[in-house]
Fold:
Amino acid sequence: GENVEQHPSTLSVQEGDSAVIKCTYSDSASNYFPWYKQELGKRPQLIIDIRSNVGEKKDQRIAVTLNKTAKHFSLHITETQPEDSAVYFCAASIKEYGNKLVFGAGTILRVKS
Amino acid sequence: DAGVIQSPRHEVTEMGQEVTLRCKPISGHNSLFWYRQTMMRGLELLIYFNNNVPIDDSGMPEDRFSAKMPNASFSTLKIQPSEPRDSAVYFCASSSTGFEPQHFGDGTRLSIL
Structure:
């Protein structure tokens, strides 16, 4: 079955710096890769996603890149702000399994002001 | 636009009692997912339904857990009898078919004493 590894488990950056979180997946049939942000005590919220036919996607300060050959994808946050502090989860899914997502273990991002 | 609605938001009960968690997916979504989140194990998929039919329940921890989806707008997750190790936050999520993302409810924080 699919397995998703996420690194680092914690990340501290200074406000204004960039943050990068990386995930690797095991099943080459995976074709959809969302990223979720979860603030303390709240639900996971989708922040960006990418499909396997696209190598990069950007939305303001957030971007995701996908390397299908190496089976890894990354979240990039530029010009970090204190409100970016949260837990970030990557996930991978295989369409044939009805959009079943396998989540990474999460990264705690702290943005220091 | 109403999101995924879960009830109750918080549940505190004694060991051995039956617990029922409820979920109303987003109208028009035909996939529904139940997750459990703990510090130790992260986000675990318990079971998911497509068009009200259970597709994969391999994540259900044991026979004490059961889930139903009697119609497209309602699902329940039941634990009977409950144990302290079942204490966690339980999330319900729904999505459409294809590459549509999963949208999470606000979760039920369950404490078994």
User: Anything to note?
Assistant: Chain A has a mean pLDDT of 93.
